[in-house]
């Protein structure tokens, strides 16, 4: 397993080979073995394989080609709907339509998603997370018919890889791990931690392609712009509210 | 690996055997191989081993004995502080002090945490998530000296198991998986999905111990009460705000 974890690459090119149902079931079972708040399993997984449905989803994911190309699209949702219905049917008054339970349910859903990804990779498949799921959650809710109490928090593509990308760089461990308490970063620390990343040939190419002086500017000016972040922040907060996770306010 | 995933149990009794630093490094490296938004690694891991520090943390985790008994306590934090500092030092204007980036960073941190847990389990260790981390985030921020831009989203205990608990029950797959779109649950569905859980000997004992008619009431009346949920919801939202993830409002 350690090998599977260490060899993870995001896969964006897939063969059209479908995933057999028994394999898919094993992968989904592996998902449900993840730790879950009080064993409440506050999540749902929507498996979308139908080509038309995936074409509907594509614009929400900025039309990345893999959304229609990979055989399986999965959406992991924070879900208090099922638990809420169960409580009501058992003479119990649920008190979970609030932000803490959005967070608890989101945590549950994300641990499941990572188990699912690793189980798939262990079986020779590839996966890729789609960050767009939180950007356009409102569209995804409509297309996947998610009811009150259900909000998407992660989406992945899954299938058999049709590419062999190299391992992506990571910051050195000292850049992300703190012992005992958090030691805030000095400007020397920042220089040291980002040195390797900034020295990569890949980075040099990015600066050239984007006509930028620093890699950080590629992020702030091109990839993840402030105005977009603010727009999608408001949207996602609105979705959490309209799906019933802020009812106490 | 699939076996490690399928055999996961939360461990609450630990031997006092310490985890060797080289093992710990391998586990942490495995954490950093997780998918991360735009390869920004918007997280930090605080590893707390010092006994005094863990005694300080214990009340925030409702004094669960494992917090001081297990050799390692880890806190996984959503972190835009490091990225923000890097941007500023590279003439780039960061726009990440908003809710979307709390969510992105929380997702990053949670995928790392699950990799770390599975890597530890693969090495014969046990882990347990502490749900309390989101309840008392304000205390944890103070004790671990987390700066602006850093919010804890998960905490785990880790060490060599000193118990062998059985596998916890889970809902059948059909209870949590939907195909193509979400199919909302009828009352028959709810009865069928929860039937096995409600028939367990463990459930019968819980009803007796808690003097309740249904398992759902054990949750709503004893374990996770509405008034507590509302209190901790407000606290956590306040923490997200005071740590600088709502600056656009």
Report on this structure:
The structure is a homodimer of 249-residue chains. The first copy, chain A, has 249 residues and is α+β, with helices and mostly antiparallel strands. Chain A has two domains: 2-165 and 226-242, 3-Layer(aba) Sandwich (NADH Oxidase); 173-223, no CATH class. The first copy, chain A, contains twelve helices and five strands. A four-stranded antiparallel β-sheet of chain A has the order 1-2-4-3, sandwiched between helices.
What does this entry show, briefly?
Chain A contains twelve helices and five strands. By secondary structure, chain A is an alpha+beta fold.
Helix vs. strand class of chain A: alpha+beta
Q: What's the assembly state of these chains? A: homodimer
Q: How many strands, what sense, and barrel or not for the largest sheet of chain A?
A: 4 strands, antiparallel
Instruction: Give the beta-strand count of chain A.
Output: 5
- CATH fourth-tier homologous superfamily of the largest domain in chain A: NADH Oxidase
Biggest interface, chains and residue tallies: A-B, 118 and 117 residues
- Secondary structure: helix percent of chain A: 40-55%
Mean pLDDT over all positions of chain A: 97
CATH fold-type name of the largest domain in chain A: NADH Oxidase
What is the CA-atom radius of gyration of chain A, in angstroms?
A: 20 Å
Secondary-structure element string of chain A? HHEHHEHHEHHEEHHHH
């Amino acid at each position: 397993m350690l090998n599977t974890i260490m060899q993870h690459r995001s896969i964006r090119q897939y063969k059209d080979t479908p995933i057999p149902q028994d394999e898919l079931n094993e992968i989904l079972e592996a998902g449900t073995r993840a730790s879950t708040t009080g064993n409440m399993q506050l999540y749902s997984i929507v498996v979308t394989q139908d080509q038309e449905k995936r074409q509907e989803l594509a614009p929400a994911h900025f039309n990345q080609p893999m959304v229609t190309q990979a055989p399986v699209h999965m959406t992991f949702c924070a879900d208090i709907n099922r638990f809420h219905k169960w409580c009501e049917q058992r003479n119990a008054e649920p008190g979970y339509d609030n932000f803490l339970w959005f967070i608890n349910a989101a945590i549950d859903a994300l641990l499941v998603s990572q188990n699912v990804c690793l189980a798939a990779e262990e079986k020779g498949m590839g996966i890729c997370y789609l960050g767009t799921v939180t950007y356009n959650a409102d569209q995804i809710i409509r297309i996947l018919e998610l009811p009150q109490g259900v909000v998407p928090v992660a989406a992945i593509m899954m299938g058999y890889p049709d590419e062999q990308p190299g391992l992506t760089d990571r910051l050195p461990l000292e850049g992300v791990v703190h012992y005992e308490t958090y030691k805030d970063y000095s400007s020397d620390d920042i220089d040291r931690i980002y040195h390797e990343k900034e020295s990569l040939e890949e980075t040099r190419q990015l600066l050239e392609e984007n006509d930028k002086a620093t890699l950080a500017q590629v992020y702030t000016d091109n990839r993840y712009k402030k105005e977009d972040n603010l727009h999608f922040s408001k949207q996602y907060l609105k979705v959490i509210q309209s799906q019933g996770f802020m009812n106490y306010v």
